[in-house]
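Schema walkthrough. Field components (list of strings):
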Amino acid sequence: MSPVLASAATTAAVTTQSVVFWLLAVVSVGAACGMVLARRAVHCAIFLAAVMLSLAVFYAMQGAPFLAFVQVIVYTGAVLMLFLFVMMLIGVSSADSLVETIRGQRLAAAVAGIGLVVLLLLGIGHTVIGPAQPMTSIGGQGNLSGIATLIFTTYVFPFEVTSALLITAALGAMVLAHRERTSPKLTQRELSRRRIASKWPTPLPSPGVYALHNAVDMPALLPDGTPSELSVSPVLTRRELGTETAPVPESLPAGGDEPPRGGEQGNGEPGGGQPGGAQPSSGGPDNGQPGDAGTERPVETSTQGRSDS
Amino acid sequence: MSPAAYVTLAVVLFAIGGIGVLVRRNALIVFMCVELMLNAANLAFVAFARMHGNLDGQVIAFFVMVVAAAEVVVGLAILMAIFRTRRSTSVDDANLLKN
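Field assembly_structure (string):
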Protein backbone atom coordinates (compact mmCIF):
# COMPACT_ATOMS: atom_id res chain seq x y z
CA MET A 1 0.00 0.00 0.00
CA SER A 2 2.63 2.45 0.97
CA PRO A 3 4.65 2.21 -2.27
CA VAL A 4 1.45 2.93 -4.19
CA LEU A 5 0.77 5.95 -2.02
CA ALA A 6 4.34 7.12 -2.36
CA SER A 7 4.28 6.78 -6.12
CA ALA A 8 0.95 8.62 -6.25
CA ALA A 9 2.42 11.42 -4.17
CA THR A 10 5.47 11.58 -6.42
CA THR A 11 3.26 11.75 -9.50
CA ALA A 12 1.22 14.54 -7.95
CA ALA A 13 4.39 16.47 -7.11
CA VAL A 14 5.72 15.99 -10.63
CA THR A 15 2.43 17.17 -12.11
CA THR A 16 2.39 20.24 -9.87
CA GLN A 17 5.96 21.00 -10.81
CA SER A 18 5.29 20.74 -14.51
CA VAL A 19 2.15 22.87 -14.23
CA VAL A 20 4.08 25.56 -12.37
CA PHE A 21 6.93 25.26 -14.84
CA TRP A 22 4.76 25.75 -17.91
CA LEU A 23 2.83 28.61 -16.33
CA LEU A 24 5.95 30.48 -15.29
CA ALA A 25 7.78 29.65 -18.52
CA VAL A 26 5.02 31.36 -20.47
CA VAL A 27 5.05 34.28 -18.03
CA SER A 28 8.82 34.72 -18.12
CA VAL A 29 9.18 34.43 -21.90
CA GLY A 30 6.25 36.79 -22.40
CA ALA A 31 7.69 39.30 -19.95
CA ALA A 32 11.09 39.05 -21.64
CA CYS A 33 9.50 39.74 -25.03
CA GLY A 34 7.62 42.64 -23.46
CA MET A 35 10.88 44.00 -22.11
CA VAL A 36 12.40 44.00 -25.58
CA LEU A 37 9.28 45.54 -27.13
CA ALA A 38 8.22 48.10 -24.49
CA ARG A 39 9.13 51.64 -25.39
CA ARG A 40 9.42 53.13 -21.92
CA ALA A 41 12.31 52.22 -19.66
CA VAL A 42 10.02 51.93 -16.62
CA HIS A 43 7.86 49.33 -18.32
CA CYS A 44 11.02 47.42 -19.22
CA ALA A 45 12.02 47.42 -15.55
CA ILE A 46 8.62 46.07 -14.51
CA PHE A 47 8.84 43.29 -17.10
CA LEU A 48 12.36 42.47 -15.93
CA ALA A 49 11.08 42.21 -12.36
CA ALA A 50 8.47 39.67 -13.54
CA VAL A 51 11.16 37.61 -15.27
CA MET A 52 13.41 37.68 -12.20
CA LEU A 53 10.63 36.65 -9.82
CA SER A 54 9.63 33.71 -11.98
CA LEU A 55 13.29 32.71 -12.20
CA ALA A 56 13.38 32.75 -8.40
CA VAL A 57 10.49 30.28 -8.36
CA PHE A 58 12.37 28.13 -10.87
CA TYR A 59 15.41 28.10 -8.56
CA ALA A 60 13.24 27.06 -5.64
CA MET A 61 11.75 24.24 -7.72
CA GLN A 62 15.23 23.10 -8.76
CA GLY A 63 16.40 22.57 -5.20
CA ALA A 64 18.18 25.89 -4.83
CA PRO A 65 16.26 27.74 -2.10
CA PHE A 66 19.29 29.85 -1.19
CA LEU A 67 19.68 31.10 -4.75
CA ALA A 68 15.94 31.77 -4.93
CA PHE A 69 16.13 34.10 -1.94
CA VAL A 70 19.32 35.73 -3.21
CA GLN A 71 17.60 36.26 -6.56
CA VAL A 72 14.69 38.04 -4.91
CA ILE A 73 16.82 40.08 -2.50
CA VAL A 74 19.78 40.98 -4.70
CA TYR A 75 18.27 41.14 -8.17
CA THR A 76 14.69 42.20 -7.68
CA GLY A 77 15.43 44.14 -4.54
CA ALA A 78 18.76 45.82 -5.10
CA VAL A 79 19.72 45.76 -8.78
CA LEU A 80 16.29 46.66 -10.08
CA MET A 81 15.92 49.42 -7.50
CA LEU A 82 19.26 50.76 -8.69
CA PHE A 83 17.91 50.76 -12.24
CA LEU A 84 14.81 52.62 -11.10
CA PHE A 85 16.86 55.20 -9.18
CA VAL A 86 19.01 55.90 -12.24
CA MET A 87 15.82 56.12 -14.28
CA MET A 88 14.53 58.78 -11.92
CA LEU A 89 17.79 60.70 -12.28
CA ILE A 90 17.94 60.66 -16.06
CA GLY A 91 14.24 61.27 -16.64
CA VAL A 92 11.53 58.75 -16.02
CA SER A 93 9.70 59.52 -19.26
CA SER A 94 12.66 58.78 -21.47
CA ALA A 95 11.25 56.71 -24.29
CA ASP A 96 13.22 55.07 -27.04
CA SER A 97 12.92 56.45 -30.51
CA LEU A 98 11.35 53.98 -32.87
CA VAL A 99 13.43 55.10 -35.83
CA GLU A 100 15.76 52.47 -37.15
CA THR A 101 19.19 54.04 -37.41
CA ILE A 102 20.62 51.13 -39.38
CA ARG A 103 18.31 49.87 -42.10
CA GLY A 104 17.16 46.30 -41.64
CA GLN A 105 18.85 46.04 -38.26
CA ARG A 106 15.79 44.76 -36.41
CA LEU A 107 15.18 42.03 -38.95
CA ALA A 108 18.82 41.03 -38.84
CA ALA A 109 18.76 40.99 -35.03
CA ALA A 110 15.64 38.83 -34.98
CA VAL A 111 17.16 36.42 -37.49
CA ALA A 112 20.36 36.29 -35.44
CA GLY A 113 18.41 35.62 -32.25
CA ILE A 114 16.35 32.83 -33.77
CA GLY A 115 19.50 31.38 -35.30
CA LEU A 116 21.13 31.46 -31.86
CA VAL A 117 18.18 29.59 -30.36
CA VAL A 118 18.29 26.98 -33.11
CA LEU A 119 22.05 26.49 -32.80
CA LEU A 120 21.97 26.19 -29.02
CA LEU A 121 19.02 23.84 -29.07
CA LEU A 122 20.75 21.66 -31.65
CA GLY A 123 23.80 21.55 -29.42
CA ILE A 124 21.68 20.67 -26.42
CA GLY A 125 19.86 18.02 -28.40
CA HIS A 126 23.13 16.33 -29.24
CA THR A 127 24.29 16.17 -25.65
CA VAL A 128 22.71 13.86 -23.20
CA ILE A 129 20.93 15.73 -20.45
CA GLY A 130 20.23 13.13 -17.87
CA PRO A 131 17.25 12.99 -15.59
CA ALA A 132 17.23 15.06 -12.43
CA GLN A 133 19.03 13.57 -9.48
CA PRO A 134 16.95 13.11 -6.37
CA MET A 135 16.36 16.39 -4.63
CA THR A 136 17.66 15.18 -1.27
CA SER A 137 21.27 15.33 -2.38
CA ILE A 138 21.27 19.05 -3.15
CA GLY A 139 18.08 20.63 -1.85
CA GLY A 140 16.41 20.74 1.47
CA GLN A 141 18.12 21.51 4.75
CA GLY A 142 21.62 20.72 3.55
CA ASN A 143 21.50 23.22 0.70
CA LEU A 144 22.70 26.25 2.62
CA SER A 145 25.41 24.44 4.56
CA GLY A 146 26.48 22.63 1.40
CA ILE A 147 26.91 25.90 -0.49
CA ALA A 148 28.74 27.42 2.47
CA THR A 149 31.09 24.44 2.63
CA LEU A 150 31.83 24.69 -1.08
CA ILE A 151 32.40 28.45 -0.99
CA PHE A 152 34.80 28.28 1.93
CA THR A 153 36.71 25.20 0.80
CA THR A 154 36.83 24.61 -2.95
CA TYR A 155 35.94 28.10 -4.09
CA VAL A 156 37.62 30.10 -1.36
CA PHE A 157 40.03 31.85 -3.73
CA PRO A 158 37.31 33.03 -6.16
CA PHE A 159 35.34 34.13 -3.11
CA GLU A 160 38.21 36.34 -1.91
CA VAL A 161 38.72 37.71 -5.43
CA THR A 162 35.04 38.59 -5.40
CA SER A 163 35.57 40.83 -2.39
CA ALA A 164 38.32 42.69 -4.27
CA LEU A 165 35.98 43.01 -7.25
CA LEU A 166 33.22 44.47 -5.11
CA ILE A 167 35.54 47.01 -3.49
CA THR A 168 36.86 48.03 -6.90
CA ALA A 169 33.33 48.37 -8.25
CA ALA A 170 32.28 50.54 -5.31
CA LEU A 171 35.35 52.76 -5.73
CA GLY A 172 34.79 52.98 -9.49
CA ALA A 173 31.18 53.97 -9.00
CA MET A 174 32.21 56.69 -6.57
CA VAL A 175 34.90 58.01 -8.93
CA LEU A 176 32.53 57.99 -11.90
CA ALA A 177 29.67 59.61 -10.03
CA HIS A 178 31.87 62.27 -8.44
CA ARG A 179 31.62 65.71 -9.98
CA GLU A 180 34.28 68.35 -9.56
CA ARG A 181 33.04 71.83 -8.74
CA THR A 182 34.17 73.98 -11.66
CA SER A 183 33.20 77.35 -10.20
CA PRO A 184 33.67 78.62 -6.66
CA LYS A 185 30.71 78.27 -4.37
CA LEU A 186 28.59 81.41 -4.23
CA THR A 187 28.36 83.11 -0.88
CA GLN A 188 25.15 84.49 0.51
CA ARG A 189 26.26 88.03 -0.26
CA GLU A 190 26.81 87.24 -3.93
CA LEU A 191 23.51 85.41 -4.10
CA SER A 192 21.57 88.34 -2.65
CA ARG A 193 23.34 90.81 -4.95
CA ARG A 194 22.49 88.67 -7.94
CA ARG A 195 18.91 88.45 -6.84
CA ILE A 196 18.54 92.21 -6.47
CA ALA A 197 20.24 92.81 -9.82
CA SER A 198 18.04 90.28 -11.60
CA LYS A 199 14.67 90.97 -13.20
CA TRP A 200 12.82 89.26 -10.36
CA PRO A 201 13.97 90.35 -6.92
CA THR A 202 10.76 89.02 -5.37
CA PRO A 203 9.77 85.37 -5.17
CA LEU A 204 8.01 83.95 -8.19
CA PRO A 205 4.20 83.64 -8.06
CA SER A 206 2.92 80.52 -6.33
CA PRO A 207 1.19 77.87 -8.42
CA GLY A 208 -2.53 77.45 -8.30
CA VAL A 209 -3.52 80.95 -7.17
CA TYR A 210 -7.06 81.65 -8.41
CA ALA A 211 -6.85 78.57 -10.65
CA LEU A 212 -9.17 75.58 -10.69
CA HIS A 213 -6.94 73.50 -8.38
CA ASN A 214 -4.03 74.46 -6.19
CA ALA A 215 -1.72 71.66 -7.27
CA VAL A 216 1.91 72.53 -7.92
CA ASP A 217 1.53 71.89 -11.65
CA MET A 218 -1.39 74.31 -11.98
CA PRO A 219 -0.38 77.77 -13.19
CA ALA A 220 -1.66 80.74 -11.22
CA LEU A 221 -4.11 83.09 -12.88
CA LEU A 222 -3.10 86.70 -13.34
CA PRO A 223 -5.67 89.48 -12.68
CA ASP A 224 -6.71 89.47 -16.35
CA GLY A 225 -7.32 85.71 -16.34
CA THR A 226 -4.23 84.61 -18.23
CA PRO A 227 -2.22 81.80 -16.68
CA SER A 228 1.13 82.85 -15.27
CA GLU A 229 3.76 80.59 -16.74
CA LEU A 230 6.28 81.69 -14.12
CA SER A 231 4.29 80.05 -11.37
CA VAL A 232 4.93 76.44 -12.47
CA SER A 233 8.26 74.75 -12.09
CA PRO A 234 9.74 73.88 -15.49
CA VAL A 235 10.46 70.38 -14.24
CA LEU A 236 6.76 69.70 -13.79
CA THR A 237 5.65 71.18 -17.07
CA ARG A 238 8.27 69.17 -18.86
CA ARG A 239 6.60 66.02 -17.57
CA GLU A 240 3.38 67.04 -19.31
CA LEU A 241 1.15 67.02 -16.30
CA GLY A 242 -1.32 69.36 -18.02
CA THR A 243 -1.87 73.07 -17.61
CA GLU A 244 -5.62 73.39 -17.59
CA THR A 245 -6.98 76.54 -16.03
CA ALA A 246 -10.19 77.46 -14.32
CA PRO A 247 -13.12 78.33 -16.58
CA VAL A 248 -13.28 82.07 -16.87
CA PRO A 249 -16.66 83.55 -15.92
CA GLU A 250 -18.66 85.32 -18.58
CA SER A 251 -18.50 88.61 -16.75
CA LEU A 252 -14.79 88.95 -17.40
CA PRO A 253 -13.58 90.93 -20.42
CA ALA A 254 -13.17 89.14 -23.70
CA GLY A 255 -9.42 89.02 -23.37
CA GLY A 256 -9.80 86.40 -20.70
CA ASP A 257 -11.34 83.96 -23.16
CA GLU A 258 -8.07 83.04 -24.80
CA PRO A 259 -5.98 81.31 -22.12
CA PRO A 260 -8.29 78.45 -21.18
CA ARG A 261 -8.54 77.41 -24.80
CA GLY A 262 -4.79 77.48 -25.13
CA GLY A 263 -4.51 75.46 -21.97
CA GLU A 264 -6.88 72.80 -23.22
CA GLN A 265 -5.01 72.64 -26.47
CA GLY A 266 -1.73 72.18 -24.72
CA ASN A 267 -3.24 69.48 -22.58
CA GLY A 268 -4.96 67.52 -25.30
CA GLU A 269 -2.55 67.61 -28.17
CA PRO A 270 0.72 66.02 -27.09
CA GLY A 271 -0.89 63.01 -25.47
CA GLY A 272 -3.28 62.30 -28.30
CA GLY A 273 -5.50 60.17 -26.06
CA GLN A 274 -2.69 57.97 -24.76
CA PRO A 275 -0.60 59.80 -22.21
CA GLY A 276 1.96 57.01 -22.09
CA GLY A 277 2.71 57.19 -25.77
CA ALA A 278 3.58 60.85 -25.97
CA GLN A 279 6.94 61.33 -27.58
CA PRO A 280 9.33 63.64 -25.81
CA SER A 281 9.89 65.48 -29.06
CA SER A 282 6.18 66.14 -29.54
CA GLY A 283 6.42 68.97 -27.03
CA GLY A 284 7.07 71.24 -29.96
CA PRO A 285 5.91 74.76 -30.59
CA ASP A 286 2.26 73.77 -30.41
CA ASN A 287 1.99 73.12 -26.73
CA GLY A 288 4.34 75.98 -26.22
CA GLN A 289 3.18 76.93 -22.77
CA PRO A 290 5.07 74.30 -20.82
CA GLY A 291 8.23 74.74 -22.82
CA ASP A 292 8.08 78.51 -22.78
CA ALA A 293 7.65 78.46 -19.05
CA GLY A 294 11.07 76.92 -18.77
CA THR A 295 12.78 79.37 -21.07
CA GLU A 296 11.10 82.51 -19.83
CA ARG A 297 11.70 81.78 -16.22
CA PRO A 298 14.71 83.84 -15.15
CA VAL A 299 17.61 81.50 -14.81
CA GLU A 300 19.38 83.32 -12.02
CA THR A 301 16.36 83.18 -9.78
CA SER A 302 15.78 79.49 -10.24
CA THR A 303 19.37 78.55 -9.52
CA GLN A 304 19.29 80.85 -6.57
CA GLY A 305 16.27 79.13 -5.17
CA ARG A 306 17.87 75.74 -5.56
CA SER A 307 21.12 76.64 -3.89
CA ASP A 308 19.29 78.40 -1.10
CA SER A 309 17.32 75.41 -0.03
CA MET B 1 10.42 18.53 -14.92
CA SER B 2 13.57 17.30 -16.55
CA PRO B 3 16.55 19.68 -16.58
CA ALA B 4 16.36 19.77 -20.38
CA ALA B 5 13.19 21.86 -20.19
CA TYR B 6 14.91 24.37 -17.91
CA VAL B 7 17.93 24.53 -20.20
CA THR B 8 15.65 25.13 -23.19
CA LEU B 9 13.91 27.93 -21.33
CA ALA B 10 17.30 29.41 -20.44
CA VAL B 11 18.32 29.32 -24.12
CA VAL B 12 15.13 31.12 -25.16
CA LEU B 13 15.56 33.80 -22.49
CA PHE B 14 19.22 34.26 -23.42
CA ALA B 15 18.33 34.75 -27.09
CA ILE B 16 15.58 37.26 -26.23
CA GLY B 17 18.08 39.21 -24.14
CA GLY B 18 20.56 39.13 -27.01
CA ILE B 19 17.95 40.45 -29.43
CA GLY B 20 17.19 43.24 -26.96
CA VAL B 21 20.86 44.19 -26.72
CA LEU B 22 21.06 44.36 -30.51
CA VAL B 23 17.81 46.22 -31.09
CA ARG B 24 17.37 48.72 -28.28
CA ARG B 25 18.96 52.19 -28.34
CA ASN B 26 18.46 53.28 -24.75
CA ALA B 27 21.58 52.29 -22.81
CA LEU B 28 19.52 51.60 -19.68
CA ILE B 29 17.37 49.04 -21.51
CA VAL B 30 20.48 47.51 -23.05
CA PHE B 31 21.75 46.99 -19.51
CA MET B 32 18.49 45.34 -18.52
CA CYS B 33 18.77 42.97 -21.46
CA VAL B 34 22.31 42.07 -20.38
CA GLU B 35 20.89 41.30 -16.93
CA LEU B 36 18.33 39.05 -18.56
CA MET B 37 21.09 37.16 -20.36
CA LEU B 38 23.01 36.71 -17.09
CA ASN B 39 19.86 35.44 -15.42
CA ALA B 40 19.29 32.94 -18.20
CA ALA B 41 22.85 31.67 -17.76
CA ASN B 42 22.16 31.32 -14.04
CA LEU B 43 19.07 29.26 -14.76
CA ALA B 44 21.13 26.92 -16.94
CA PHE B 45 23.75 26.61 -14.18
CA VAL B 46 21.11 25.69 -11.62
CA ALA B 47 19.54 23.17 -14.00
CA PHE B 48 22.89 21.51 -14.60
CA ALA B 49 23.55 21.44 -10.87
CA ARG B 50 20.25 19.63 -10.44
CA MET B 51 21.18 17.23 -13.20
CA HIS B 52 24.53 16.35 -11.66
CA GLY B 53 23.16 16.30 -8.15
CA ASN B 54 25.89 18.51 -6.69
CA LEU B 55 26.08 22.13 -5.62
CA ASP B 56 28.90 23.45 -7.81
CA GLY B 57 26.53 24.94 -10.35
CA GLN B 58 24.66 26.79 -7.65
CA VAL B 59 27.91 28.24 -6.30
CA ILE B 60 28.87 29.40 -9.80
CA ALA B 61 25.43 30.99 -10.20
CA PHE B 62 26.01 32.76 -6.90
CA PHE B 63 29.32 34.17 -8.18
CA VAL B 64 27.61 35.24 -11.41
CA MET B 65 25.11 37.21 -9.32
CA VAL B 66 27.92 38.97 -7.46
CA VAL B 67 29.73 39.88 -10.67
CA ALA B 68 26.46 41.06 -12.22
CA ALA B 69 25.82 43.34 -9.24
CA ALA B 70 29.29 44.88 -9.57
CA GLU B 71 28.80 45.26 -13.33
CA VAL B 72 25.48 47.04 -12.83
CA VAL B 73 26.97 49.47 -10.32
CA VAL B 74 29.85 50.50 -12.56
CA GLY B 75 27.73 50.48 -15.72
CA LEU B 76 25.06 52.71 -14.25
CA ALA B 77 27.73 55.11 -12.94
CA ILE B 78 29.19 55.32 -16.46
CA LEU B 79 25.68 55.88 -17.79
CA MET B 80 25.17 58.72 -15.34
CA ALA B 81 28.47 60.31 -16.35
CA ILE B 82 27.56 60.08 -20.04
CA PHE B 83 24.11 61.49 -19.38
CA ARG B 84 25.60 64.38 -17.43
CA THR B 85 27.76 65.48 -20.34
CA ARG B 86 25.63 64.50 -23.35
CA ARG B 87 22.08 64.84 -21.93
CA SER B 88 21.14 61.57 -23.61
CA THR B 89 21.24 57.86 -22.86
CA SER B 90 21.06 56.71 -26.46
CA VAL B 91 23.92 54.47 -27.43
CA ASP B 92 24.03 56.20 -30.82
CA ASP B 93 24.97 59.53 -29.26
CA ALA B 94 28.10 58.28 -27.52
CA ASN B 95 30.34 58.43 -30.59
CA LEU B 96 33.16 60.74 -29.53
CA LEU B 97 35.78 58.08 -30.26
CA LYS B 98 34.50 57.55 -33.79
CA ASN B 99 36.67 59.99 -35.73
